[in-house]
Write a structure and sequence with these properties.
Elements: H1 12-19, H2 32-35, E1 43-47, E2 53-55, E3 63-64, H3 70-80, H4 85-88, H5 116-125, H6 131-146, H7 154-163, H8 165-177, H9 184-195, E4 198-199, H10 201-212, H11 227-240, H12 246-252, E5 257-259, E6 264-269, E7 273-278, H13 289-302
Antiparallel strand pairs: 1-2, 1-7, 3-4, 5-6, 6-7
Helix pairs in contact: 3-5, 3-11, 5-8, 5-9, 6-9, 7-9, 8-9
C-alpha cells in the first residue's frame, strides 16, 4: 500500500503548479463580477483539527462565497429552528441543475438545502424579524464559522438580487405552495447577501474544518453548532453538495464538499481536516475544473476517501 502524505508537510504550491496547465472550463457569467473573475486564480488551503493552516500562494485572495455558503445556511437554520428545518426542506439528491424550477411532488418542499430553492428557504428560517435582521444573524453565524468578521461585496449582493430571476421564480413558487413564509423579495435579498460574503481560501477552509470538527472552530476553540447539526450538514453535503455530479464526486473523491459558481469548493473530511480550493473556470455542472482535480489529488495523496480501506 502506498504511503500517505502528511497534511502538515504537504506541498500545496507544487500541487497548484501542476494544476495551472489545465485550461478547461469557463467562468460563470450570471453577474458582471463573476464574469470578470481572473481565470488564472488558483489557491488551496487546508485546516487541521489542531487549528494549523497549510496554504498555497493566492490563498488570501478574496472572492464571493456564492453557493459554498449553503451548508452554513443549512446549519444556522437547523440551529435556530431546533431541527425544524429538516421538516421544511428535503435531503434527497435531485439529478437536476442547482437552479431548477422544481420542488418535491406532494409537499412543495425544496428537494435539498444545497440547491437554490433549499438555500432560499433555509436562509429565511434563521432568526430575525425581517430581512435585515436575518442577514445580520447570518453574518454573525458565518463569522463564527470563519473565526473572524466577514465583509459583504455590496455590488455582488445588488446584482445577485437584481438579476436572480430564477431565484425570484423559485421563491414565488414556494410562496404559492405555502412552503416559504417570508416574502419572495425578502428571501432573495437575504440569500443574495449571504452569497456575496467575501472569503478567501484559508477562511473557507476554516469554515469547512469547523464542520469537520463536529461544529467546533479549530482556530478559536468556540463551539459554533452542536455536533449533531454538523453531522447532519456534512451528510447532506456528501449526497447533494455537487448537484447532479454528487454521485460521481463521492465515487472519485469520497469527501463531503460543496461547490460554487465563484469556482470555490469547500471540503469537510470529518475528524481529519477542512479544505478549500478556488479557481473560477467551471465544468458543465458548475464545479471548478482545477478545484476538482486538486481535491481528487488531496483525497488520493492524503487518504481522505471515506470508503477506502487505508
Amino acid at each position: 500500500m502506498t504511503a500517505l502524505a502528511d497534511p502538515r508537510r504537504f506541498d500545496l504550491d507544487a500541487l497548484r503548479e501542476r494544476l495551472l496547465d489545465e485550461r478547461d472550463g469557463e467562468v460563470d457569467t450570471s453577474i458582471p463580477q463573476l464574469a470578470t473573475a481572473d481565470p488564472a486564480l488558483c489557491a488551496i488551503a487546508l485546516v487541521l483539527p489542531d487549528g494549523s493552516i497549510r496554504s498555497s500562494v493566492q490563498a488570501d485572495a478574496p472572492f464571493s462565497v456564492q453557493s459554498a455558503v449553503k451548508p452554513f445556511l443549512f446549519a444556522l437554520a437547523l440551529l435556530d429552528t431546533d431541527g425544524e428545518a429538516l421538516d421544511r426542506v428535503g435531503i434527497e439528491p435531485t439529478g437536476e441543475s442547482f437552479d431548477a424550477l422544481k420542488l418535491e411532488s406532494g409537499t412543495g418542499r425544496p428537494p435539498n438545502p444545497m440547491v437554490n430553492a433549499g438555500a432560499l428557504l433555509t436562509a429565511s428560517l434563521v432568526e430575525g424579524a425581517d430581512a435585515s435582521a436575518r442577514s445580520a444573524r447570518i453574518a454573525r453565524g458565518l463569522a463564527a464559522f470563519a473565526g473572524r468578521d466577514l465583509d459583504v461585496d455590496e455590488d455582488v449582493a445588488h446584482n445577485e438580487h437584481l438579476l436572480g430571476d430564477r431565484n425570484h421564480a423559485l421563491a414565488h413558487l414556494m410562496r404559492a405552495e405555502g412552503t416559504l413564509h417570508a416574502t419572495a423579495d425578502d428571501a432573495v435579498e437575504v440569500y443574495a447577501r449571504a452569497c456575496a460574503t467575501l472569503v478567501d481560501a484559508e477562511t473557507l477552509a476554516v469554515m469547512g474544518a469547523t464542520l469537520a470538527c463536529g461544529g467546533v472552530n479549530p482556530r478559536t476553540g468556540d463551539r459554533v453548532i452542536p455536533e449533531r447539526v454538523a453531522r447532519d450538514v456534512v451528510s447532506v453535503m456528501a449526497t447533494c453538495g455537487v448537484y447532479d455530479g454528487s454521485g460521481r464526486w463521492m465515487r472519485a473523491v469520497g469527501v463531503p464538499a460543496k461547490s460554487s459558481v465563484s469556482g470555490a469548493i469547500v471540503l469537510s473530511a470529518p475528524g481529519r481536516l477542512g479544505a478549500a480550493v478556488v479557481s473560477p473556470p467551471l465544468d458543465a455542472q458548475g464545479t471548478s475544473v482545477r478545484g476538482r482535480l486538486a481535491i481528487e489529488a488531496l483525497s488520493d495523496e492524503l487518504g481522505l476517501h471515506a470508503f477506502a480501506a487505508h
